Amino acid sequence: MMLTQTTVTQVRAFKFITPLFFASALALFGMLMSTDSMAQTEADVLAKLKNGGKLVCKPTEPNFCLNVHVSCAGKTNYQAFAFGLETNASKVKLTVANELDQFSELYASANVEWSADNSYMFISPAKGKGYVKMFQNGKYVFRYYPPNQEGIMSLGMCE
Prior knowledge:
- This protein is an alpha+beta fold.
- The protein has a domain at 50-158.
- The protein has helices at residues 5-50, 101-106; strands at 54-59, 63-68, 72-79, 83-87, 92-95, 111-114, 120-124, 130-135, 139-144, 152-158.
């Protein structure tokens, strides 16, 4: 085989591009693996809870809000609080600080519903209004109805 100028130029270009290509491919692979493990971690939050694991849930806002869509609309005087969550397929245990025992009592016989696609779970008290809805990524919405008042909401994250 006889080498021509075109062949030599292509070989040199290939030698120059190979390390750059390799580094780019490695970086892309790393990003894909990172995204995959992040998605797996998000899915594991509900799986952990569904299999009897315990989670600690912390609010992102210091107070409950009148309504929550994109952000807190109308902050209230009700302080948001952290809570523990433990459940299996049919029972739930919500634990709070001693001064907030009414929430433990409210959710003592709560109903637990899991979405068909495992993207969220829904906990509602057997007696009373309100709910805790937790999503696959660990984010939650806590809706509570103080006596003789409209519902208020708290947002947060469970880990």
